[in-house]
């Protein structure tokens, strides 16, 4: 049996491509995002009382990878990318229904020109992600600190230390409109966004990732990441 | 933008009708349920490694109420049923996309005759519920014990004390196939499943609810509930 679901809202976030998005929403805390409700769901009534909750569940669609379909097994990066586990034992995007789930901090609600915007703390969502449900986080029902977390019992460790090349420092200084930019880039790149097969080996490649309206270039020599340049797009 | 999602599996639970279903999955702990994966998703591969996790997130469809559409505001039972809040500030079934979300204990995985069944602890799901996604519960990302829980900061209190009329006792004794039945019925009815407008007033009505293959009859004189009869259907 099939069901049709509609887009209720769309995410506006600094992540302009899938590469370098943290694997869970709480891992990069310095980026904020906005959820714009779309007509006919952009009614102040529909979010009345939501401000009483500190966190929300967002159900969303993996819109950029859904065309690729699903696989019964996937290789989670947490297992080094060379062990296969069942797709339902992971939060991989390559699932039968392209539904994602994230808990995000709710910082506020903005009503403007008939529009409704939810101001969100750190998200792990691509810019433009279609949101299909919003629910309050209920700590008495949803918080299970003693649940057994399988192959992902803790946040990823072995973070890289991030430094900025003088040219990147100069670019940072020019972006006074984004005061948390240094922290944000440091948190994103500390997680080592490279594919698992690249890790633990010499790597001279310069990578680039689109964040906000920038192309951020970097090189990784573990345990260090150097941001070599920040270019405007 | 609209998306089509497919049913991956179906719930087999004691709850044969919406009335008396607990409002969150952990509130009635004695009932177990099963999730049957449907072709082509009933592959042992697709759940490989899932047994390492103690809890799952199930995304499901509110199939019995979806025809009724959505309302921008609803009256949550937690507020006595006479205060309106936005639908997105609740887990009400009357939402734009009829998607539900429950965290449930995973007790085991059964592979039989090419079928895959997930053995679940307490659920709050109607028998026959279509499941559209299964994800592992990740305590490091999902457990936020200090989140602010709005108008539902704690589990519902003011539970009723439940007693069994001798006729109901006799029926219980005949159901040796369901050894946890007494506890299950006590937990379900202790929550006072009546509509909010009935509460706090004299109420002589006899109610009936279908649980398993039974019609369970009861009367409520707060703070007591008497199970008057348990009839086979």
From TrEMBL, chains A, B:
Q: Does the keyword Transferase apply?
A: yes
Organism domain of life: Bacteria
Please state every residue range assigned to the domain named TsaA-like. Answer: 5-146
GO BP annotation list: methylation
Q: Which UniProt keywords apply?
A: Methyltransferase, S-adenosyl-L-methionine, Transferase
InterPro entries attached to this UniProt entry: TrmO-like_N, TrmO_C, UPF0066_cons_site, YaeB-like, YaeB-like_sf, YaeB_N_sf
Q: Does the keyword Signal apply?
A: no
Q: Which GO terms describe its molecular function?
A: tRNA (L-threonylcarbamoyladenosine(37)-C2) methyltransferase activity
Q: Kindly give the Pfam families that the UniProt entry links to this protein.
A: TrmO_C, TrmO_N
Family recorded in the similarity comment = Belongs to the tRNA methyltransferase O family.
Q: What is this protein called?
A: tRNA (N6-threonylcarbamoyladenosine(37)-N6)-methyltransferase TrmO
Q: Which species?
A: Aeromonas simiae
């Amino acid at each position: 049996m099939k069901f049709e679901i509609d887009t209720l809202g769309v995410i506006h976030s600094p992540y302009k491509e899938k590469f370098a998005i943290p694997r869970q929403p709480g891992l990069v805390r310095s980026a904020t995002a906005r959820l714009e409700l779309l007509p006919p769901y952009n009614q102040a009534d529909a979010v009345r009382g939501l401000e009483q909750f500190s966190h929300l569940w967002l159900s969303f669609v993996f819109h950029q990878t859904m065309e690729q379909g699903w696989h019964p097994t996937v290789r989670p990066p947490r297992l080094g990318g060379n062990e296969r586990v069942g797709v339902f034992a992971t939060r991989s995007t390559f699932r039968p229904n392209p539904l994602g789930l994230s808990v995000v901090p709710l910082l506020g609600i903005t009503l403007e020109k008939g529009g409704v915007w939810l101001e969100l703390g750190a998200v792990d969502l691509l810019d433009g992600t279609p949101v299909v449900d919003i629910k309050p986080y209920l700590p008495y029902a949803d918080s299970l600190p003693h649940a057994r977390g399988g192959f992902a019992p803790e946040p990823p460790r072995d973070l890289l230390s991030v430094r900025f090349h003088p040219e990147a420092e100069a670019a940072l200084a020019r972006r006074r409109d984004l005061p948390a930019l240094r922290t944000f880039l440091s948190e994103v790149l500390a997680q080592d966004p490279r594919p698992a097969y690249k890790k633990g080996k010499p790597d001279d490649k310069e990578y680039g990732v689109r964040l906000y309206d920038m192309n951020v270039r970097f090189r990784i020599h573990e345990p260090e990441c150097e941001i070599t340049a920040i270019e405007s797009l």
